[in-house]
Each structure stands twice: as C-alpha cells, then as structure tokens.
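Subject: Sanity check before I submit

Could someone independently write out the structure tokens for this chain? I want to compare against mine line by line before I put it in a report. The sequence has 311 residues.
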Amino acid sequence: MTSNDPDEGRRIHYGDFYGVSDTTGDERPLLVVWGNCQAEALRIVVSSAADLPYRTVRVPPVHELTESDLPHVRDLMARCAVLLSQPVRSGYRGLPIGTDDVDALRSTRAEKIVWPVLRYSGLYPFQVIVRHPSAPSATPAGVPYHDLRTVIAARDGDSAGWDVPLSARQVTDVAAWSIAELARRERAQCDVGVSDLLLPAGAGAANTVNHPGNSVLTALGSRILGALGCGPPAEPDRELLGNIVSPLDERVVRALDLQARPRPSWLVDGSSVSQDEIRRVQLQWYRDNPPFVDAAIQRYADLLDILDMAA
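---
Independent answer below. Compare away.
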C-alpha cells in the first residue's frame, strides 16, 4: 500500500534522527556532524575511519530543519558525545539550532570541534550565493547559484554582451580573495580548516562554490580525525558533493595552470545543461525577483571590483 504521508520518505532517510531505525546493536558513543549540506558529506568521510570509536547518524542539514524537528534535535544532542559543527549562528532561521544552542543541550560536553563553512570562488570567479530576508530559502531557477554576469545583465536590461573579459591576474586575485576570506573565518571561528589546501587541490577543489571536492573533504576529515586521535579516512567511492558540477572557464584553467579540461556546460544530476539555458531562465527569475539583483551587487561589491564589473 502506498503511503499518503509526504514526509514518510524523509523520516526513513533520516531514520536514526527521527527514531524509526533500529540502532540498538551499536553501543558506541554518538558523534554528530552538524551544519549545512557539507555536513553529511563530512560525516561519510569521518565515519569511514577504521578505528573510529563512535557511531554516526544521518542528520538533516540545518537549513531544512523546522520547529517540528526540535524534539528530535534535543533527543539527539542529549545522546551526543562528540559534536562536529560548522559555525551556525544562535537562533538560526528563528530556531534554537545554532552551534551554541545545540551544544548547550548535550548532557556531556567533553568534545566539540568546529569546522568551517567551505566556500571557494577560485575555480568559479563569477559564481555566488545570495540570500534575501524576504525569501531566505529562495534560489534562482535552473541551478541554485547566481552568476554575477547574469546579475549585471539583469540590472542593465541587456544580455547581449553577457560575458566579460577575465584576465589571469583577475583569476588569481579572486582565488586569493576567496582563500583569505575563508582563512579569516577559520581563525575567528574554527578549530580546524583547509584554506591552505584549496590551491594545491587544483580543479578538484570544488564542484561549485559551496560544494568542495572529495580531496578537500577527505583532507578536512583527516584533520578532524587526527584531533580525535584516530587514523585517516578511507577514500570515498563516489563524488560526495557532485550532483551539480559548474562550468569551468578556459581562462581559469590557464590562469591557475589546472590539470583539467574546460567544461562549457553545467552537469546537473548527470545531465548536461548549457550556460545559455541557465542564463535564460535566471534572467526571467530576476525579473520576477528583482530584490536579489541589488542584494547580489551589494553583497559582492569587493568581488565585482576585482572583476572590474563594479560600474
């Protein structure tokens, strides 16, 4: 019989979190990885260590949690021995699910490691993420990323000259700017970081600005495991955050001397989608959602200046 409950699939997917999976056979202390979409990928990496003395559970990303999930959050944290968390602000989205909020729920607070929200623009200098208070969860059509060239075309009402010049110096400056920003946040908020490994990772550093590649995730996992006194993780058998892969500009490949071929199109769930198609649907999306144009321009003024797009 088919269930009429639209949330049943979610409860099954996060069965340990919702208490619908039988985990009585694993008596190891609980390690929780807390954060955005990167958290589940990191959990997979950390849990692959052969000598990890903790069990882990799949947890919804914080931006998907609702008020009805709070009893499950409290129950999870009451059992949590080790908390690996990104910096999540207290009262995030109006809920007590920030790092300090959930840490305070733990019955024993012996171990907490804070790791960074990973964003890297070096491979994709025009790609950004924009939030607006009028619609905090809204993302543009086609792919959930904004392209500053499309943003400027939407502002100016002209997509004919959509692309812009991009020099090698601009590419390296964007990479340096992005790494410096991540390093600043690591120093201020985190116990471990990987900003020093992004350039050496080359084309494998990221699939999108906020989806690090396996090499970065395993390096981060290795540093966290080392802090826990454990050995290294296993190599993942798939690309953990590879459901969307961004186009890779030939000018970026040359400027960063990447050992990779340019990618002219998006890859979305295994299907190729042209940049022209994404640009077309996003221009319409900006016509329907004009506040995001100004929000992007204000939020990324420094980046637009590096790219000589600020005027």
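---
OP: Matches mine. For the report I'm noting this point. Residues 127-212+238-306 form one domain.
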